[in-house]
Design brief:
- There is one protein chain.
- By secondary structure, the chain is mainly α.
- The chain has one domain: Arc Repressor Mutant, subunit A (Orthogonal Bundle).
- It is built from 5 helices and 2 strands.
- The chain has a two-stranded parallel ribbon.
- The chain is globular.
- The N and C termini lie far apart (45 Å).
């Protein structure tokens, strides 16, 4: 997954509502790329400044901020706090209350032939 292949990742991240977070693995799976969580990180890192993708809503599998303070971790923390997400001093988010659970899409069934 490179450059133009990141559009599905960005589309999923744009769906994460304010006040919720998703893991890199969750985003990868929803983008149709299960087991490619690291690629989600690469895609988000490649975002240009000012992009309309809420990258700060994506956290690691343990519910922690992955960024260090000098690489954007402070900005991520501040953005999440501004949205009402609880972030501990250690950078952990209580996932039970803040994990995004997208509604399952219903698949239309074909009428059975009788």
């Amino acid at each position: 997954m490179t450059g133009s292949g990141w559009a599905p990742v960005y589309a999923v991240v744009r769906r994460i509502p304010r006040g919720k977070v998703a893991t890199y693995g969750q985003v990868a799976a929803l983008a149709g790329r299960p087991r490619q969580a690291r690629q989600v990180g690469y895609a988000l890192h490649a975002l240009p400044p000012g992009a309309d993708v809420p990258w700060h809503r994506v956290v690691n599998a343990a519910g922690r901020l992955s960024l260090t303070p000098d690489s954007g971790g402070i900005e991520q923390r501040l953005r999440l706090l501004a949205e009402g997400v609880t972030v501990t001093e250690g950078g952990r988010i209580p996932m039970a209350g803040f994990r995004w659970q997208p509604a399952r899409r219903t698949v239309a069934r074909r009428p059975s032939a009788r």
